[in-house]
Design a protein that fits this description.
Bound molecules: guanosine-5'-diphosphate
Largest sheet: 7 strands, parallel
Strand order of the largest sheet: 3-2-4-1-5-6-7
Structural class: alpha/beta
Order of helices and strands: HHHEHEHEHEHEHEHEHHHH
Number of helices: 13
Radius of gyration: 28 Å
Helix content: 40-55%
Length: about 375
């Protein structure tokens, strides 16, 4: 008998089979997650071509990975996607923190999508590399756009030098274009070198400015203004409208003094409000006219060709530098030489020469 207490002699007592108690820990916790199956180059390329967002995302992760085998795979995927790339408008967007980049990209992006476009938003955020934090932000950005199925938003790759991060973004552009995104925004913060990197991968460079501080023209580097194909003054709403207009005329005057840009396009200055969605179509009309203009003059092609050459050279520079600094003997000698230079025992130039000689010697020995 299973439960002796159920014997008739113990009337009034009924013991039932117990209920198994709940486990205290989550039984699924230790179960191994089934690994996502590895994809072949062709899986990636086909997925991307079909516009499969999850495969595109995985391919971008591959591009961003530092692991050598990922890099090799990524390069193959990029190579196979190249013939399907190029058919987009690449637009760089910069502005200091608080200028309203996210707010504006959200509405510019919706404008693009409402007009039948597909949009990828990429970013280059040099701050995330140095401080592990980022200026472009972990906060939820582009809230409306992130709900759109035709928008692909990817934060900045975080590891590596600015050059390395920029190269990854440039490669990601290729993948996004092959996936059918016909508008690519590349966003960056207007605080440093990253504008030059973005400028070298886009067709149109948009500078977002603010009015109302009284010293609009100070604080932005002349170089950044010179790169801009369009300057837009945000937050032209409420009692800020007049100040925005004033700032716009100051910018126009300043631009007047700049040498003509190689595209022969005269950069325009427009006021708008990203938050209240005022003037978005005017900004976009300028961008449409720019593309029509440079396609007609042939500058569009020329700039892209120049950029392709530039990126080839940049990649060579980056790989050479990486290779150089990875050779153990070179690193050891470099350390010794640094001490000698600091102690004034040797000049920087001859020390550099010695380290380079060592490097070339090792290279020829390994041939
Ligand atoms: P970001 O740092 O350049 O990305 O700037 P955000 O888009 O985060 O905007 C910074 C602040 O400015 C936020 O509080 C926005 O709500 C506000 N803002 C952005 N665009 C406008 C605008 O057109 N008008 C007004 N009044 N405020 C805006």
């Amino acid at each position: 008998m299973e439960h002796p207490e159920n014997d008739l002699q113990y009337k009034g007592l009924q013991v039932n089979a117990g209920v198994q108690s709940q486990p205290i820990t989550n039984p699924y916790k230790n179960r191994r997650r089934t690994a996502t199956p590895a994809l072949t180059v062709n899986d990636y390329v086909e997925g991307i071509r079909k516009g499969d967002v999850s495969i595109l995302g995985r391919a971008v992760t591959l591009v961003e990975s530092m692991a050598e085998q990922h890099q090799a795979l990524a390069q193959e995927v990029i190579e196979k996607c190249l013939p399907f790339s190029g058919n987009s408008r690449r637009i760089g967007i910069t502005g200091v923190p608080g200028a309203g980049k996210s707010t504006s990209i959200d509405v510019f992006g919706l404008h693009v999508i409402r007009n039948g476009g597909k949009l990828a938003v990429l970013a280059i955020d040099p701050s995330s590399e140095r401080s592990k934090g980022s200026i472009l932000g972990d906060k939820t950005r582009m809230e409306k756009l992130s709900l759109e199925k035709d928008a692909f938003i990817r934060p900045s790759p975080s590891a590596g030098s600015l050059g390395g991060v920029a190269r990854k973004t440039r490669e990601t552009i290729v993948l996004c274009e092959a996936a059918g995104y016909d508008n690519i925004f590349v966003e960056t913060v207007g605080v440093g070198q990253s504008e030059t990197a973005v400028h070298s991968m886009v067709d149109f460079f948009l500078l977002i400015q603010l009015a109302g501080t009284g010293d609009e023209l100070q604080g932005i580097k002349r170089g950044i203004m010179e790169m801009a194909d369009g300057i837009v003054i945000n937050k032209a709403d409420g009692d800020n409208i007049e100040r925005a207009k004033l700032a716009a005329s100051q910018f126009r005057n300043a631009l007047f003094l700049f040498p003509p840009s190689p595209s022969k396009w005269k950069p325009e200055v427009i006021t708008y409000s990203g938050y209240y969605e005022i003037g978005i179509d005017i900004v976009w009309d300028m961008i449409d006219r720019y593309f029509a203009f440079v396609k007609k003059t042939g500058y569009f092609e020329r700039r892209r060709n120049e950029q392709a050459k530039y990126w080839m050279r940049e990649t060579i520079d980056e790989q050479l530098r990486n290779h150089f600094y990875q050779v153990p003997e070179v690193r050891a000698l470099l350390q010794q030489k640094e001490i000698r230079v600091l102690n004034n025992e040797q000049s920087s130039f001859t020390a550099a020469r010695d380290v380079l000689d060592k490097y070339f010697e090792i290279i020829s020995r390994n041939k």
